[in-house]
Write a structure and sequence with these properties.
115 residues; mainly beta; 6-stranded mixed sheet; 4-stranded antiparallel sheet; 10 strands
Length: 115
């Protein structure tokens, strides 16, 4: 009944940019701290970035700080991740969820950074 749909991934060269989107259903989006996660092959899912309900406070993993920007549009129930200066180590499937992981996981969107 509640679900998330991630989109915007693709294949880019090192140094390139992508903008990911996460469209949410239900009524909890606007009152939830939201996060982006990623999972590379053979690795556990890791937290990438977090944003509070009003969008005024953000936090980032050290590995992406200064390169990624998380944002949201609550009227559209949509979460975004602007990724710049991409590196091969950013290659992963990217997922969104509430910070408490209250939604079921979506399919994610594949980001591949390669020459």
């Amino acid at each position: 009944q509640v679900y998330l749909v991630e989109s915007g991934g693709g294949l880019v060269q090192p140094g390139g940019s992508l903008r990911l989107s996460c469209a949410a259903s239900g009524s909890i989006f606007g009152v939830s701290t939201m996060s982006w996660f990623r999972q590379a092959p053979g690795k556990q899912r890791e937290l990438v970035a977090t944003i509070t309900p009003g969008g005024f406070t953000t936090n980032y993993a050290d590995s992406v700080k200064g390169r990624f920007t998380i944002s949201r549009e609550n009227r559209k129930k949509t979460l975004y991740l602007q990724m710049n200066s991409l590196k091969p180590e950013d290659t992963a499937v990217y997922y969104c969820n509430t910070h408490a992981r209250e939604y079921s996981w979506g399919q994610g969107t594949q980001v591949t950074v390669s020459s």
